[in-house]
Write a structure and sequence with these properties.
By secondary structure, the chain is mainly α. Among the domains are: about 25-125, no CATH class; about 215-290, no CATH class; about 300-330, no CATH class. It has helices spanning about 5-10, 60-75, 80-90, 95-105, 110-120, 130-160, 180-185, 195-210, 220-240, 245-255, 260-265, 275-285, 300-315, 320-335; strands at about 25-30, 35, 170, 175-180. The structure holds zinc ion. Zinc ion (ZN) binds near residues 31 and 32.
Amino acid sequence: MARTSKIQSTSTKPKQAAPLKDERTEFYCCRCQKQYKRQKANFPASQSTLYKGNGGYLAICNNCVDELFEHYKAALGNEADAIRRVCLKFDIYWNPEIYQMLNKASTSQSRVRAYISKTNLYKYIGKTFDDTLDEEYAQKLEAEAAVQAELEAAERAREESIIKSVEPVYDDEEKEIVVDENIIQYWGTGFTPEMYIELEGRRNYWLSQYPPGTVLNPGEEGILRQICNLEISINQDRAAGKPIEKSVNALNTLFGSMNMKPSQKKETEENYVPFGVEIARFEDGDPIPEPDEDFKDVDGMRHNILTWFLGSLCKTAGIKNEYSQMFEDEIGQYTVERPKYDDSDDDVEEGETVV
Ligand SMILES: [Zn+2]
C-alpha cells in the first residue's frame, strides 16, 4: 500500500454522508436475501460511516456474518485472524485488545458477533478499520524508529570508543602533554607523549575503516598495535633517510595476519561468495525484469527447444509434465489417426453425446 507520511498524523477515515429519513419497514440481507422486520438483533451494528445510511447496521445479516466467520476460521486456521478478516470486510475496528476481552467473557452469541458488539462500546465509538490501519501503520513506524535509534546508539558508542583524546591535552601550565592512563596501558610505557598521540591517531584511523559495531579480538588488537607502531617508525626512518625495506616487509606480514592485504580479500572464507549466492543477491536486489510479451519468444526458439528437445526427452523418459504435453500436442498435429467406423451410430443411449 502506497502511503505517504502525510497520512501518518491525520486519520484516513472518510466523512459521513448527509442522512435521509429511514422509512423502511422491511430489511433484506444483501447476501442471503432473507427478509427481516427489523434490523436490531438481526443485523450487526456498525460504527462505520459507510453504513450510517442503513441505520448504522451492516447490510449483511447475523447468520451470514457467522457463516463468513466460520469460513475464514477454517481457511485461515485461526479465530483472531478470521475475526480480523471479517472486520476488514465490513469496515469494523480491529484491535487485539478487544479480542482479549472476548476470551474472558462468556456469551451465547457467536464469537465474531460478540467481538462486533464490543467494538460498539463507548470506548471504541467512531472507530473503523481505517483506524486499525492507521494504528498498525503508526506501530510499524514506531518499531522502525526504535530499530533505527538502536543502530544509531550502537554507532555513537563505537565512535566514542574510537575518538579518545587525539587532540593533545596539556597540563595546567600548558607545557606538557598529559596522556590518559588507559592509553599508556594500551601502548605500553616508554613513549614520548607526542608518540602516544600519534599512535592513537593511527589506531583510530584503522578502526574507522571497519564496519560499524566491529569488535577486534585480543589477537587482532595486538597485531593492530604492531601495525601502528611500524607505520610510525617507517615514517620516521624514511624521513631520517634510513633503509625501510625490512620494516615494510614486516608490515606486510602484519597486514596479512589482519586479512588487510588486498590480494587476500578475495580468498578468505568470510569474503568468499559462491557464484550461485552472488546470482541470488542480484536476483533478490535487482532482478532481471520479465521481458515484454512481444519479445518473450520472438523466433519461437524457446518453444521449439521446450517442445522438441525437453518435451521429447520427458516423453521418452515417461515423465508426465507440461513439456511432454507440449510435445504430444505438437506431434498430434502431424499424426494421422486411423478413422474409426462405428456401426452402432443409431443406438446412442440417451444422455450420451456424439462427437
Ligand atoms: Zn444473510
